[in-house]
Description:
- The protein is of the alpha/beta class.
- It has a single domain, classed as Rossmann fold (3-Layer(aba) Sandwich).
- It is 34% helix and 19% strand.
- The radius of gyration is 18 Å and the shape is globular.
Amino acid sequence: MKFDPEILSYLSGENFSKGLKVKISEKEKTIPLRMDYIEKLVVNKQIIHLGCADHIPLIKEKIRRNKWFHKRLVESSKYCLGIDINREAIEYIKNELGYSDVLVADIQKNDIIKEISSQKWDYLIMGELLEHLDEPVDFLKTIKEKYSPFISYLIVSAPNALRIENYYNSKKQLEVINSDHRFWFTPYTLAKILYRAGFEIESYQFCQGFKLQANQVFKKRLLRKYPAFRDTIIMIAKF
């Protein structure tokens, strides 16, 4: 899905509306899964996976269930460099799991990383990361300024504020949320953050994080008809 060109003037701040109406979805025949969708984008591509680690006790079980994202990206891409600030997890991934192309680094605060600047990359992938940051615009802006000569596109996945579960929980007077999250996102607000950081918005897609069960017939119909009720937004932006 792409934004109407007129929306760009609102993303830039050239125009303002206190009640802007943004068309964000259309009926779809399928319900793409987050990992599957990104995997297809990176086939035979040179990619960087930022935030590649996970909670150490969970990794082996996720590998067994084919749910560890870094493994799937390594297998689908031409080459995948993993970066994370968690030294213990990176050492585990290297020494216990045998992944050599991972490194410990703070991509925002460290000097330009030579493993990145030594070649050209198709995509930098940030999966479920922005919602954990205090200052996502500053974080993205620094990365854009440092690495735009070396990377073509950014892929971001983030929690969708419009997901159907939020509606159901609201009816129960509840918010159910990861306690480390700072933000929920909509297509417009996610695009606004990326645009403010200097990126050029290409497209986005509503996805589900996990496959629905066979007996969830009504929910499948609902999510095909109204993609904005899905739980994740994936956005592609140009460096």
